[in-house]
């Protein structure tokens, strides 16, 4: 497994580390809000193996190693302490990073996440993994069907829907098999009670991949966690970009705005 994740460093101010989703990337998952976050924070965004410019891993990914590497990248970028914004699989990475490096992490923002995949998510991962070996457009159709909120999906014209599927098919990172393998193995349930930093959990209420029950479980397990529910599917950065950014900024300024870089 590579220990050299490609990453972006943007902006100035308190530290904010990004942990992206499985089959995603920093640009793919956070691109719509990156510029805004960098206006107030030093944002460090690493891409997992096989995403962005990071070489693909030669073996399975390990949650401890991924979490440690993200923290190491943030420290190397000059951040002594930082909040972590995790999305989907990245919520597991963020929780594990806070568990293993409590002296570094000032707060957690966990979006569209889960503690451990349930049968629904495991089935989705199995289909995802099998389709990766074949027709990428069929995989893109499946992910669009499973992940997009009903309101957003049904508001698309036929040409917009086709463009969305084609765009997703062209985006699928080469490291996706290892990413979805990691999704299947995440289990942070035993760690949640030990998280002592301010935590915001953002549930995506129209999400067919990580339904809000998962976020509610995260929030219930972390002492003092705040739960916000946003009407969006898994692709919150497209479907509810302004609302997502707004609750992130409010939390960062109120809870961890005094963090040092």
Folded structure, characterized:
The protein is α/β, with parallel strands linked by helices and 261 residues long. It has a single domain (7-257), classed as 3-Layer(aba) Sandwich (Rossmann fold). The protein is 46% helix and 15% strand. It is built from 12 helices and 7 strands. It has helices spanning 26-30, 34-37, 63-76, 89-100, 119-132, 136-147, 150-155, 158-171, 176-185, 212-221, 236-239, 241-255; strands at residues 7-10, 15-19, 42-46, 82-87, 105-111, 199-204, 226-230. Strands 1-3-2-4-5-6-7 form a 7-stranded mixed sheet, sandwiched between helices. α4 (89-100) links the parallel β4 (82-87) and β5 (105-111). α6 crosses α8 (158-171). The chain is globular and about 45 Å long.
Layout of helices and strands, plus pairs?
Elements: E1 7-10, E2 15-19, H1 26-30, H2 34-37, E3 42-46, H3 63-76, E4 82-87, H4 89-100, E5 105-111, H5 119-132, H6 136-147, H7 150-155, H8 158-171, H9 176-185, E6 199-204, H10 212-221, E7 226-230, H11 236-239, H12 241-255
Parallel strand pairs: 2-3, 2-4, 4-5, 5-6, 6-7
Antiparallel strand pairs: 1-3
Helix pairs in contact: 3-4, 5-6, 5-9, 6-8
Q: Whole-Å distance between the termini? A: 29 Å
- What strand order characterises the main sheet? 1-3-2-4-5-6-7
Discrete helix count: 12
Instruction: Tell me, rounded to a whole number, the average pLDDT.
Output: 95
Name the helicity range.
40-55%
Shape: globular
As for the number of domains, it is 1
Can you tell me the CATH architecture? 3-Layer(aba) Sandwich
CATH class identity: Alpha Beta
CATH H level: which superfamily?
Alpha/Beta hydrolase fold, catalytic domain
Look at the helices and sheets and give the structural class.
alpha/beta
Strand percentage lies at 5-15%
Element-level helix/strand string: EEHHEHEHEHHHHHEHEHH
Please give the number of β-strands.
7
Query: Whole-number radius of gyration?
Result: 17 Å
- CATH fold label: Rossmann fold
Oligomer: single chain
Largest sheet: 7 strands, mixed
Domain AB hydrolase-1: 16-236
InterPro entries: AB_hydrolase_1 (IPR000073), AB_hydrolase_fold (IPR029058), AB_hydrolase_sf (IPR050266)
GO molecular function, one term: hydrolase activity
Pfam families: Abhydrolase_1
């Amino acid at each position: 497994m590579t220990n050299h994740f490609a990453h972006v460093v943007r902006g100035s101010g308190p530290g904010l580390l990004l942990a992206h989703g499985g089959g995603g990337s920093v640009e793919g998952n956070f691109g719509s809000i990156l510029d805004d976050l960098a206006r107030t924070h030093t944002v460090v965004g690493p891409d997992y193996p096989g995403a962005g410019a990071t070489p693909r891993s030669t073996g399975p990914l390990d949650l401890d190693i991924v979490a440690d590497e993200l923290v190491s990248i943030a420290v190397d970028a000059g951040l002594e302490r930082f909040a972590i914004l995790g999305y989907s699989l990245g919520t597991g990475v963020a929780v594990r990073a806070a568990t293993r490096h409590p002296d570094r992490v000032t707060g957690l923002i966990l979006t569209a996440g889960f503690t451990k995949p349930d049968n629904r998510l495991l089935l989705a991962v199995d289909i995802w993994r099998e389709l990766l070996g074949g027709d990428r457009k069929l995989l893109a159709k499946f992910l669009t069907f499973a992940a997009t909120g009903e309101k957003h999906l049904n508001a698309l014209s036929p040409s917009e829907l086709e463009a969305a599927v084609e765009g997703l098919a062209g985006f699928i990172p080469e490291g996706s098999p290892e990413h979805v393998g990691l999704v299947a193995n995440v289990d942070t349930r035993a760690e949640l009670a030990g998280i002592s930093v301010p935590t915001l959990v953002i549930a995506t209420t129209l999400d067919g991949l990580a339904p809000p029950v998962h976020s509610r479980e995260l929030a219930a397990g972390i002492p003092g966690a705040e739960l916000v529910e946003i009407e969006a599917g898994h692709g919150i950065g497209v479907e509810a970009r302004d609302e997502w950014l707004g609750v992130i900024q409010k939390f960062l300024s109120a809870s961890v705005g005094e963090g040092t870089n």
